[in-house]
Specification:
With 378 residues, this protein is an alpha/beta fold. It has two domains: 2-179 and 361-377, Rossmann fold; 182-359, Glycogen Phosphorylase B (Rossmann fold), CATH 3.40.50. The chain is built from 15 helices and 14 strands. The chain has helices at residues 19-33, 76-84, 99-110, 125-129, 132-148, 158-166, 210-213, 215-229, 243-252, 270-274, 291-298, 312-318, 328-340, 345-359, 362-377; strands at 2-6, 37-44, 48-51, 57-62, 90-94, 114-118, 152-155, 173-175, 201-205, 232-236, 259-262, 279-282, 302-306, 321-324. It has an eight-stranded mixed sheet with strand order 3-4-2-1-5-6-7-8, with helices on both faces.
Length: 378
């Protein structure tokens, strides 16, 4: 069986650093571990063909002559026709509301190549509330058709399939999860827990997207918590245009001295960064899985996550934290409850770490997915 994974912005020759690219690299390595010929297809500034460090191949096509977001890089369509179609390959299309995904779906159908849509985020009502004037027309013109014509839609939580049903789609759904990058797992001997006498350090790690990630909710909840707990909060990640507004919110709430905003640090692994804190918080209004939360589990930290995130079921199963509603009251109550459990943080964190290492390995996840993929490729 041959599998191709399309992600337009996959970093050919560079280390994946954001959630989607890390997930694609992880799945590609897991598929290769299971003996599947796997190729990641992407578009960039030059034509490159690279052997990945974990057994998969990266084929990058130069976008130089491509015009418009719906245009594929020249040569990519020829690759589909010459390399994927004759081998009865299956292609995984990564992304949602992305013209490149739609364009690639048209190309694949033209050449008789089946595909699986992998949106990563759910099509929840909250997704459409922001920029709905753009998303709804795109949904009816392009997105719905791309999803309806897929062999399956791969989701990170069964509830995300229910979102599709409410939107009138009957495409089969494959439920999966994201996995552990074993190279980034810090040894247990290096993990430390600070004493009860020091202020609790709370962290968010990810893109500074206030609406999606619920960072405005987190700041308001933290302001109310800070008045009685003396905790500190760090928000670290690339600015998606909301950092200045979040900094203003912190100043207005009188907590600017207790909130630190940091640029992304790609020189160190996420578990290493998170190990410097006590508690990780992901209060997203909508969330596919929550890779940063998984990385916090690897660092044996205590977690507070949105109940909408796919990883919420693993947080609950392992006992490493709480899943709450993405509201100020939900986040505030969850943080207060976890702070009262400080004597158990080491025990809780190690339980989450053991759960992640046992149940969320990419090789195991890919093996489960392969059974579904093989039924689509015949």
């Amino acid at each position: 069986m041959q599998l191709a994974i399309y992600l337009r912005h996959f970093p050919a020759g560079a280390k994946p650093v954001n959630g989607t690219t890390v997930a694609v690299a992880g799945l590609a390595s897991g598929l290769a571990e299971n003996g599947v010929r796997t190729t990641v297809l992407c578009e960039g500034d030059a034509r490159r063909s690279l052997n990945g460090a974990h057994g998969y191949v990266v084929e990058c096509f130069e976008r130089g002559a491509a015009r418009g977001r719906f245009a594929l890089a020249p040569g990519l369509a020829d690759y589909v026709a010459g390399q994927l179609a004759p081998r009865n390959a299956l292609c995984l299309l990564n992304g949602m509301f992305h013209p490149g995904v739609y364009a690639m779906s048209r190309c694949l159908r033209r050449h008789g190549v089946r595909y699986v849509a992998v949106p990563h985020d759910p099509y929840e009502p909250a997704v459409f509330r922001r920029n709905g004037h753009l998303k709804w027309p795109y949904w009816f013109l392009f997105e719905r058709r791309m999803l309806a014509q897929a062999g399956a839609v791969q989701v990170l939580d069964a509830r995300h399939g229910e979102c599709l049903r409410r939107l009138g789609l009957r495409t089969p759904v494959i439920e999966t999860e994201n996995g552990v990058d074993l190279e980034c797992v810090p040894p247990e001997s290096r993990l430390r827990w600070r004493g009860a006498g020091s202020p609790a350090r709370i962290a968010f790690l990810g893109r500074l997207d206030a609406y999606n990630k619920g960072l405005d909710i987190l700041l308001e909840a933290f302001a109310r918590l800070r008045s009685r707990e003396g905790a500190r909060l760090t928000l670290q990640g690339p600015d998606w245009g909301d950092r200045a507004a979040l900094e203003r919110q912190a100043r207005r709430a009188g907590i600017a001295d207790a909130v630190e905003f940091l640029a992304p640090d790609y020189a160190r692994s996420s578990p290493e960064l998170l190990a410097a804190h006590d508690l990780f918080c992901l209060p997203s209004r909508f969330e596919g899985f929550g890779l940063a939360a998984l990385e916090a589990m690897l660092a044996a930290r205590v977690l507070l996550v949105s109940e909408r995130a796919g990883i919420a079921r693993h947080v609950a199963a392992s006992g490493c934290g709480l899943a709450v509603a993405p509201t100020v009251e939900g986040v505030l109550g969850g943080l207060a409850a976890l702070l009262r459990s400080r004597a158990r943080w080491r025990e809780m964190g190690l339980a989450g770490r053991r759960h992640a290492l046992e149940h969320l390995r990419w090789g195991r996840i890919a093996a489960d997915l392969l059974r579904a993929y093989r039924t689509l490729a015949v």
